[in-house]
Design a protein that fits this description.
Length: 219
């Protein structure tokens, strides 16, 4: 069965939901899935230059709401083994990070892609990293399993850039406005943050048993 996932490295709830999805997958005991990760950018290719994460959020939502959002996700993260450090973190353009993830899936497979995604989320939210920085991206790509030469060549080029931008644009055109979004075959569509692995374990069982139905859950 194919599972399609839309996610953004700049989305803390996508980080939490990745952990939740993997727990649900393990509980379901499924080893026959074709997991396809799709790029998405909540803020498009903004900010143009890295800036303090809470300042970026305050510019979008106001300072009080930004502080509340940070506290909420920090508390949630602690339940999933993630120590968010939003106050000292950076908001950055995630386009190049998505380009690396896109290539990871095509050239190295899902396991390397998943490791890279985890490393990029951690860099953004727990290590005060700038995920638009080529040096950081090269380091994380190699740690995930890329060959160093291939990763360096890729980062120095525009290879795959048009394709990634096209995928992001296609998602918006198709009505994707909220991530994480996970679609299980033709059966279920689960949109928004999820903290309970049972949501995904159940979705996998339901998708296997009753193909052809559609359901949308809000998290």
């Amino acid at each position: 069965m194919r599972v399609d996932i839309w996610s953004d490295i700049s989305c803390p709830w996508c980080y939490i939901t990745k952990r939740t999805f993997e727990l649900g997958l393990a509980a379901a005991g499924r080893h026959d899935l074709d997991i396809v990760l799709h790029p998405y950018q909540i803020d498009g290719e903004q900010p143009a230059e890295p800036m303090p994460m809470l300042d970026w959020l305050a510019g979008k939502y106001g300072r009080e709401r930004a502080e509340t959002m940070s506290k909420e996700v920090t508390v949630a993260g602690s339940r999933h083994g993630i120590a968010f450090r939003n106050r000292t973190g950076f908001a950055a353009n995630t386009l190049q990070a998505h380009r690396l993830l896109w290539f990871a899936g095509r050239e190295y497979g899902r396991s390397v892609q998943s490791r890279l995604e985890e490393l990029l989320f951690a860099a953004c939210f727990t290590q005060n990293g700038d995920v638009s920085d080529p040096a950081l991206l090269l380091d994380r790509a190699v740690r995930a399993g890329f060959g160093r030469t291939r990763a360096a060549e890729l980062l120095a080029s525009d290879e795959g850039l048009a394709e990634v931008r096209h995928e992001i644009g296609a998602a918006r055109s198709a009505g994707v406005t909220r991530v994480p979004l996970i679609v299980f075959g033709d059966a279920q569509r689960i949109e928004g943050a999820q903290e309970d692995p049972e949501v995904y374990r159940s979705a996998l069982a339901h998708a296997s048993d009753t193909p052809g139905t559609t359901r949308k859950d809000q998290g």
